[in-house]
Amino acid sequence: MSETNTLTSTGTIDGVNGNLIRVTFPEAVMQNEVGYAVINNLKLKAEIVRIRGRQCWLQVFEDTAGLKVGDPVEFSGELLSVELGPGLLKSVYDGLQNPLPELAEQCGYFLERGQYIDGLDRTAHWDFSPSVKVGDLVEAGESVGTVPEGMFTHRIMIPFDWRGKFTVKEISEAQTCTVDTVIAKVADAAGEIRDVKLYQTWPVKKSITAFEERLRPTENMTTQVRILDTFFPVAKGGTYCIPGPFGAGKTVLQQITSRRADVDIVIVAACGERAGEVVETLREFPELEDPRTGKSLMERTLIICNTSSMPVASREASVYTGVTIAEYYRQMGLNVLMLADSTSRWAQALRELSGRLEEIPGEEAFPAYLETVIANFYERAGLVRLKDGSIGSVTIGGTVSPAGGNFEEPVTQSTLKVVGAFHGLSRERSDQRRYPSIDPLDSWSKYPSLVDPEKLDQTRRGLREGRDVEQMMKVVGEEGTAMPDFVMYLKAEFLDEVYLQQDAFHDVDGASSAERQIHVFGIIHQILTTPLTFKTRDNARQEFLRWQQMAKDWNRTPMESPEFKTAEEKLLAAVEAHRSTGEEK
Amino acid sequence: MHTLYHGIENIVGNVLMLRAKDVGYGDLAEVSFGDERSLAQVIQLDGDQVYLQIFSGSRGVPTDATVRFLGHGLTVPFSDDLLGRIFDGSGVPRDNRPELDAAPVGVAGPSVNPSQRIIPRKMVRTGIPMIDVFNTLVQSQKLPIFSVAGEPYNELLARIALQAEVDVIVLGGMGLKYDDYLFFRETLEEAGSLSRTVMYVHTAADPTVECLFVPDLCLAVAEKFALENKEVLVLLTDMTNYADAMKEIAITMEKIPSNRGYPGDLYSQLAARYEKAVDFETAGSITVLAATTMPGDDVTHPVPDNTGYITEGQFYLRNGRIEPFGSLSRLKQFVNDKTRDDHRKIMDRMIQLYAAFRSTEEKRSMGFRMTEYDTKLVKFGGLFEDKLMDLRVTLHLEDALDTCWQIMADCFEQDECGMPTELIKQFWPNNPTD
Questions:
Q1: Is domain B76-334 classified as CATH 3.40.50.12240?
Q2: Which of A173, A475, A500, B296 is buried deepest, with most CB atoms within 10 A?
């Protein structure tokens, strides 16, 4: 929108049903416009979700208790927007970009309704340095200067929705200023002057498209989790989902990813989940060191937190707020990872609204447009080439909490259609304490792995065959299983124990670099493809258990240390002793 | 000053509709007819049509009943005099004592700012070894007790109400059998614990609508106590009845059901209640334990399923015991490193040995030969079940840990028990019992 838009008016409430209000409006309003229901001098933020004749329906982002028929509603003339500018990082926002620590300073322990605070601190000072001069031509998304924000160079860009070319008429010297300072004046083709400040606003439900072109994501986003990077990789600019029943470790996996992922910025959107989990991130991240930069992890993190007891309507807003900020930093040529936990809660918020609007329900009462909404959200991820030639990316990872742990439900299914990787968590594996409990047979990824695809295929086949033998063994017993099959089973177990499982809390084992994964996978593949022979089944089992122990110790040894090589050689020698010569009976 | 309205246009289920002006959403109204009066709450406004949910049920409500709007939402009187009192689901005394004369506080207030929450730090001692040792309850935790109808979950809650080392107990009963209500009252009275307890009880015979307010009343009162520096434990039984009451009302309101007839906002509704559990950095805390019966022992039923996503772990009650497998307190690791040096290790080892005992039992039932070690495991399993798992056992945490060592010493040699040598030196008992 441009600032010439002065479409503001006042309507009156005509009906209240839960967090949905029906309002009669005198002048024009627009779909998804923000309005404020006024009660006792408090303004409750709301968004238009349906217009019919002279009446519109708004979902209120707050508790509606006490609203009366006849109360006024002030329309703002704007869509639901966020402020984009320096100072976003390290923040903790609610779903509508209100900074929670500042809200606490105002209101104490509780989130009182009708309290809104600017997303960006108006008093913070930033050191601006210009990068254009008077007379230069610029367009939307191109920068006119930069400010340092922590370890990043924050680009100050021409607002993304300005059409056409602009001539720089005035540009500020290098100076210390606040986000409200006008640092440039530019003229459009018609000669009209517009102000450029350190920040701009952007409607959250629209994706930012001020880039040159979208590229196909191929580069691995290393998470240092072996089963992910090797078997089910995610590319920078890709999408993935983690469905799993409660207690299978979705949130722990998200937390590990948010710490270790090889990206510049991580945005965590805690959407309708436990507050306690966010608190761990909130209190621990400032103390944790980012292994990539040596600074506090919080420096590269932004938390959006709309936990389960906070107003349902802003749950939906929270994922959009998150992805909009992710797109904004992508425009600076950075790699951004956006984690949404959990998208099911957001879908449930849609279902609640849909029910109140009395729409015809789809499967399990989810609205029929669920799939489109989910697809549109994940499509905001991507790898792009910007106008200055630099590359930026937004990667989206969403958890799904399927009812009863059953993946056949609408949210999981709609998500699977649009994501590039599926990390299905299994209750069975988490009960067996096999962490991370990603099912190695059901999960998949369309992105290229760190390791040789042919070897990977071979390994995967081996795993599947081993599991088949295991199933069969449950029926016919160990005695009824042929020796080669039994070895196949043991090999699959070996792979599972020493490579797929990983101790997230161990300093070395918990963080397996790409280089290490490539090396270790090579060795493991070599062991798995060695033809082996044993005298008895017991002997085979004992030997494999011994190798497992050796390989696990090896996993816990730093790669730089001399012991690493020794442990590797010892393991290979032990396996080699059982190499089949082809002469056995 | 409040206008009186006569005449109700529609009565559908427990919902009355009349035409009125200047009514706030969520406000309370008093509906009177003949000698009866009941509270009702505004649940929808549509032009001048006001929909009221009547607490006492709509049976016998005439179309010419008088309705007076009170101009505020649901409140509950709060003062320290609440302790020792028993109320029903609409806040009316159940104990034949007068109404409480105290300032009312709002019910279902705003949620706590997540940035004001802190990492849990203190355990709640219950004197029940299966909880204190193996799945420690932590202040600000919310935990359900999943059980099948017929399991002694109310007995367990009553024991916790008697023994838990907290300042205030708030007990909420939803759809409670009258006998169970009497059981709670008598047990607490006999033990002299009623004086630190507030009860809000909705029995199965009471109107369904009142069931819906029990958790909110309990949690509003708990919050007030917590802000006055009290450590509060809220016990709720049974949350499945609460969810069923929501289902019943939603369906009479012609809301579109989502899963097995439950309303689409079941998760949000449950979460809004459970998330009231909190530890205020500069004041007290609220801990929530809620019995949740699983229809048909099915944990994927919508109520236990949604609950599992909200709570921080769960206790399974099976065959009269807290099941050691499956039960989980997700917050225990925040506190069990500060209790006693051996706590974590012995907790893990006891469970591993018990798991080994279970597989030995299977082996034995299939007629396989038992080794000497198997015999030891069988002895271990028996002692574990009698001395720790039995719900009647009450032991302080330290005594329970000593009992663990004693059981180990009675069954195994030092080098068989799999405990670290330093701990064995420190804690191995000198005098085995046999």
A1: yes
A2: A500
